[in-house]
């Protein structure tokens, strides 16, 4: 954290405090994803203490209704939430960006069909649609993940299509078309390489929101199923043990800090790219 | 000249702070305006003429430090509480600005804006009476169909008409002093003369003290009584308008006069002074003008000149009013 | 611009049809057998019920035929029968919609009030502690999971300190007034019971804040960015030169110029509010569409969850349309152009 206190001149200009704080928070949870078993004192499913113990030196965040260590479970939660979020975003980008690129590049009827699908999907409040899809597919993390991909892909389809439409007009692309390159070659070689960056940046920033959505689904019982130490379902446990406030504290702070990390970075990037609003 | 001027600025300084160090944009301007007099202030953009006049009314940008003395009608304005300053602004001292489009609020009708100007200083006046006043004001600046015009938004007006609105708004409360900051610069050439005419007529009719800030000395020729020439945050020459044109004492003034476009002579290339004014906080040693001066001597590099006066004509140049004047 | 609105209006029925189609597809993917989406597990053994459902929804026919029947049923307001409440879904949803709307409107008021005030303050006191504080408030708002925030605030304010009421729309001992609008705050006034009105308002406070915080954050960031820009414009100097006080300069001259983007972001925040309402209602035992949807999803009550999704989508579509109309109305240049 000491970078934060460096004088302005000793720090690169892009390295603003929001970026540093965000990076530290995300880094912590990335480490937890890998190293949770070594970072925590107990196994997440072991009943290691008395039930519903308030925080103490033995159990820093207390124990839950089954006597499991909340801190250990919270750290292990990263191993579920982060990989799920990454998978969901990866699939959403793969589907959304491909469809968006095709829509933008081919145009005409294909474009209309794809974009109407996008419009309709975006006509739903995201949470309601995710719930309906997840419920229809049946409970479970995989189905929740599929539901989230269905809710999320249109975002990247729109973004990618806008990118492709913009890049397609550039001179070097028109030159490639004029020189007789095939459609696929023009798209793959000349257009797509210039379109990825904004899509990937936006996808990375969306990870926080996807973690929130996944936790929300788990909270209402449509995602992870017990005894998985997933943050949303842990908070759900906490809600049923309302007076043992510590049961929900750990997972709540976990979601808060990791989403905050992504939001800090998004905010810092925004400041950097839009100095007008400083 | 009367005993006490309407508006008197003495050694006004405006400094902008950056990391604890201050750089002066206005470095001790002194000037005065008598009641009903027209003072022209001329200088390039960035010379500090606008910043100085705004600061005199307490309208300096945030973080600026203002020192010196500004007296209006015998009252000191520097250090006056904001409330008191606010009461003066728009009632006894009014301003108009360069670009009438950006100076008018785009989401308020012209009527709303004029009525606001009236009622801010006459809180007891009814809306209806203020609307009547607004209508009269539009008529005063010769805007036809005032009733219809009051309900329109600024973007429905032409540039010249917008500036008329600004003038109407400025004189809404019969001010004693009007500060016009480049009032014609943003307008089409054909409209510029009309706006100057409106200003001159109102000045005479309302016996306004008028400060005309401009970068174009030519504008002042027919309209100002006296002229102050500002360079790098200081007044470098001050004189009656005829005297100034006839006998400019400062090489900068001579440059400005030479760069007035002459309508009678077909001239392809307009004269312009070489170089650019010094950036904020990067003043050369000696006379601030010497790097651009065609007549600079050894002393100009070492010593800043002080004001020399000769029969109401003052200039800050080491060689001012020198008998052996040979500079073109 | 009016042409744009017209185009949006024309697109509406198609989008609604799209929503319905997607909902229909959902019923057909349900565990492979659409019957499970119409008849609850317990009723599956009842051949009469199964036969009746098959006939009504045309389950023995082809997919396109079923689609036509589905749309026809929807048009007549038939979204099937809830497995849990045993009542028609349409009736349930209509009964619960007002509670959600009341919560969402309250959250929008809370969010807009806090957001606009903070945005204005942050812009005016740019790069001061106030500005940084407002930024933190906004970032936290969009990072805190509402369901956890609701729990935490309920615990602190209601259990620990006892200064705010617990879950629900009214005190548990109170009898609800007759339902007129479905807005508890309005119905209590219709019933002429001012104390009950205060009680309803009191109960609305915490959930509205929980739901409105994130929106407040988003709005404050947008208002700040716009205010910073507007405050540097020349007409602000004109207003000051006219003798206007700072409050008038900021509110009447600057804020009014940010009205259009502000209205737009408030309108679009509806999506977030509907999403957040699902979870907020669950925490605060709020008898709205959100808690209905959650109960339905938990109980695999397919007709109910799909019905709520359709209604939610349609409500969402209409608010977005309203936002666009408001945008046109609030913008004198667009309106006249």
From TrEMBL, chain A:
SUPFAM superfamilies: MetI-like. It is a multi-pass membrane protein. Belongs to the binding-protein-dependent transport system permease family. It is found in: Cell membrane. The chain crosses the membrane at residues 20-41, 82-107, 127-153, 199-222, 242-266. It holds the Pfam family BPD_transp_1. Residues 78-266 form the ABC transmembrane type-1 domain. Its main location: membrane. This is ABC transporter permease. Keywords: Cell membrane, Membrane, Peptide transport, Protein transport, Transmembrane, Transmembrane helix, Transport. It comes from Paragemmobacter kunshanensis. GO terms for biological process: peptide transport; protein transport; transmembrane transport. One of its GO terms (cellular component) is plasma membrane.
UniProtKB/TrEMBL annotation, chain B:
GO terms for molecular function: ATP binding; ATP hydrolysis activity. One of its GO terms (biological process) is peptide transport. It holds the Pfam family oligo_HPY. InterPro entries: AAA+_ATPase, ABC_Ni/Peptide_Import, ABC_transporter-like_ATP-bd, ABC_transporter-like_CS, Oligopep_ABC_C, P-loop_NTPase. Keywords: ATP-binding, Cell membrane, Membrane, Nucleotide-binding, Transport. Its main location: membrane. One of its GO terms (cellular component) is plasma membrane. It is a peripheral membrane protein. It is found in: Cell inner membrane. Residues 9-257 form the ABC transporter domain. Belongs to the ABC transporter superfamily. NCBIfam families: oligo_HPY. PANTHER family: DIPEPTIDE TRANSPORT ATP-BINDING PROTEIN DPPD, OLIGOPEPTIDE TRANSPORT ATP-BINDING PROTEIN APPD. This is ABC transporter ATP-binding protein. It comes from Paragemmobacter kunshanensis.
UniProtKB/TrEMBL annotation, chain C:
It is found in: Cell membrane. The keyword Cell membrane applies. The keyword Transmembrane helix applies. Keywords: Cell membrane, Membrane, Transmembrane, Transmembrane helix, Transport. The chain crosses the membrane at residues 103-124, 136-157, 200-223, 258-284, 304-330. Its main location: membrane. This is ABC transporter permease. It comes from Paragemmobacter kunshanensis.
